[in-house]
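name: query_chain
kind: protein
chains: 1
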Amino acid sequence: MTGILGISALYHDSAAALVIDGRVIAAAQEERFTRVKQDARFPEHAIRYLLGEARQRGASVDHVVFYEKPFLKFERLLDTYLSFAPRGFRSFREAMPVWGREKLFQRDLLAKALGRIEADLGDPARLRFSNHHLSHAASAFYPSPFAQAAVLTMDGVGEWATTSAGMGSGGDLRIDRELRFPHSLGLLYAAFTYHAGFKVNSGEYKLMGLAPYGRPRFAQTILDHLIDLREDGSFRLDQSYFNYCTGLTMTNARFDALFGQARRVPESPFAQVHADMAASIQQVTELAVTRMARDLARRTGQRNLCLAGGVALNCVANGRLVRDGVFDNIWIQPAAGDAGGALGAALAYWHLALGGARADPAGQAMTHAALGPEYSQAEVAAALDAAGARYRVLGDDDLMRDTAQALAQGQAVGWFQGRGEFGPRALGNRSILADPRDPTMQRRLNLKIKFRESFRPFAPAVLVEEAQGWFDLACESPFMLVTAPVAQARRVAGGDAPADLANGLALPRSTIPAVTHVDHSARVQTVSQDANPRFHALLSAFREQTGCPVLANTSFNVRGEPIVQTPDDAFRCFMGTGLDLLVVGNCVLAKDRQDPALLHDYAQEIPPD
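structure:
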């Protein structure tokens, strides 16, 4: 057996992945272990977990592959400075000590860090480097069920590339086109994220959630001044409006003047103009992605498309691609951002460097993202006992019935089962669940449990066999990466009124208002019995009691912290939030039966995100 360890690290969202003989065995983000959101440090804890998984299978790690090439990144830094000099000296001066001390010697640093975990692992001869966008492309194509597919990757920037397009066939994967820095769809969207007062590389999904409250009245302004978007999806950005090449911010005063609006102060109230700007950049992003995909379909003749890179986490754009119909089938890597680069680097090395076979794409495809650690019932009980928790232990049938009943009675439930998910979405293993029919639930989950902005939408998890009756969804969406309209039959009278920030939340728009956004859209997760039998059983129990096969599903965490990893994390979050019930394995914990001395004010302990 050939074991390959893939690593992404030292920028943001560090992660590691284990591939054995071409099969994805396990993957995890470092943040889940350290409890530091998007932890960029070397993923020591994730690697130790993966080595344990390898040993359980009698395998060793023969190769280590880093997800990008540091020298090419350094070349970009130097070239960018020389292109804009003397502007940008401050940012160049601040970056150079880090590069001189660490990143130019990344091979040695990585080898030493690996050697501290296991001596043999630190052998520099084992260490290889992939290309950033090749890692993204490999993470999209090789875990897909397709023997052949077009591949499109879009993000902020790798070494030089910001967008790449190519073709995968069998074990072969080739990138034949790319757009280069500073022209980047990811950085354009990040500029609007920054201007809206959110954090770059983490707040983009907030901007996407804000967009339906606005009107895209600035879309033409963006197309006229910021981006020269061509029919084939290629583009150039006018750098005179941005500061990311030469400064320490994303936008500048000329950007502010173009929209007549200074950057929103983080944590300050929103104005309608912020929602309108969000709607505008979302529309432009969808237009660019659709044009790229149409051109790729024309050039390759393919009917299958694979997506990765941070822009592929824009589920609204993905939904538009699905509805556009230029591709029959679309598969999106659930860890589409840099964390997934670890997985792609390992898979690229297996297939492209070692010539590993890919004889059964459908049989080797990722049908779920549950690749992280899991805990036995004995480990769960020991952790809860040590924490002073009070709980009941139920058999599976009673557990599903009682949990579904609690949900139907309006309780918010922390649901912790099986292996943790890889990527940014909780998909029924580390989830907070609630009744989507409750018109007060969306606001309650945001303000009392997640401690975040009230406008943020929640996703519906739906039994795959019932999805068509509830959503206008033309495909399965197991990774919660496609937005679709709520079915017309599920909408309510009067729910078509225009939305804005002033009245968007006041009006129920469907019979499942907690998961229906103000534009009648929903970020759907379809749940199959094969991929997640335990979550499927809970949804089935809820349907039996209520007639509704849908639950509101959001990640088990509060704003500013990673998704919970361990039973201890779950209990701590449970006792610091407005959750009513916690289900960890077969242990059921009611909030009103816990020791009041263990309650704490979680909202004050987590920094804003």
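note: The longest helix spans residues 272-300.
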